[in-house]
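Re: the multi-chain job from yesterday

Posting the exact lines I submitted so nobody has to dig through the queue logs.
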Amino acid sequence: MNRINFVKTIALVSVLSFTALTTMCGQTTNSKTNTMENLSLTEFPALPYAYDALEPYIDARTMEIHYDRHHRAYFNNFVAAIKGTSYEKMPVEQTFAEISRAGDAIRNNGGGYYNHVLFWKILGKGSSGPSAELSAAIDKAFGSFDKFRESFSTAAKTRFGSGWAWLVVTPEKTLAVGSTPNQDNPLMDVSPVKGTPILTIDVWEHAYYLKYQNKRPDYVEAFWNVVNWDVVNQLYREAVK
Ligand SMILES: [Fe+2]
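And the result, structure tokens for all chains:
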């Protein structure tokens, strides 16, 4: 190889490397755009709709108290708990992966903060339903959509005391349903069900007591009318990438 060809080769390799690098960086940035990985540790996120947006299935007064008091308290207490610790700058996914070492204040309030942001995100009216890809994955994992719905609803109805039910994309990229106590979630190292959450329901009494009193099963059935499948489909696409 003469000197000119050598210089051209080096230049070409440099351009290709730079292009590959910027593409990779672009994909990384884009892949995080709509996930929970951008969760702010400094600013309490706005509710993405009005308090009455989910009426009559979830009433406005419940939404107001749930978001503005319960959720806000989790956020404030989480920010206070991580202040001055190594968790202050850490993405919450990483914090959750080692939550068994982080202490109860970070576990309970960090979970409470994250879980509610996801819950608000997957609620909404007027979406069309599971995408073709998600439907195929649901059929493969559960046999049919009805069986999946029954499994998820049972997990929600039978969670003893306070907690959450989940649909997750497992590390093997399959779907699984489970539930967690208190404010735990499937990103936590302590969770019995592990994976990336794409659908969830809050079964703490504060989520339904004003309208449904002790009838948690009625609230769980009503929940299916306000699942925002467009968001769930998007979270599924991102989780299986
Ligand atoms: Fe809640």
